[in-house]
Amino acid sequence: MTNNGRERVVDLKGVSVWTPERHVILDDIDWTIHRGEQWALLGPNGSGKTTLLSIISAWRHPSAGSVRVLGAEFGRADLLALRTRVGLVDPSQRTLDWLTAEEIVLTGATGTIRPLWNKYGPAEREQARTLLDAVGCGDLAERELRHCSQGERQRIRIARAMMTRPELLILDEPGVGLDLPAREAMLEALRTLAANDPSLTTILVTHHLEELPDTISDAMLLARGQVIAAGKPEQTLTDAFVSDCFGLPVRVSRTDGRWAARAVPGWARGTHE
Description:
By secondary structure, the protein is of the alpha/beta class.
């Protein structure tokens, strides 16, 4: 707990990661996330986002620094048990196309690729249906995954990650490969989850400000393995910080709670309007 009573879900202090060749991937990261906060993690390719996620989701130890996730201190805690308390949505997660949407969501209860039918009773099936409804896929319960669109598959993955009622939900580039209607449906699903469970803590990782839901409470910009800025979106998603993060002059705007960014005209030619 913090001094003001807010529970720390993620607490990183001086976290660094380097390769055996001493190539630095993460450099002295401090990051505290409190229960119920909804964070955006933004940065270009190679910035260290994936490595940072692998630590927070209890799949990797840092080279240096201290890590505490959901009260579990790395080096003392059972990381295998900790992973069951963290929901992870990754577009690269393997799924079996011949399973129905409901069956895919059910596998989230057991953390398996194939269903373990003896583990699912009426309560689990009802929960799977409820989660599919929450992400706008209730009518897809009996549809095989192979007949679902990319956007529908992503929302089904989100429902699957929620089957264990995780205390921390990590969404690794959930908008990748989605067209505009699919992206907006995915963001609406995230709004619904946030409304249904205000205590749920989330980290959404993306390259694009346009993929951020209007429910985010905080944002971190990561580049070259270092934190460029972290805090409230109004303070971090500025022209200066986003330009520094992505390495080109950028103009940031916000409309109806949604963010957008575009390069300054003429930046590639070295002349800016």
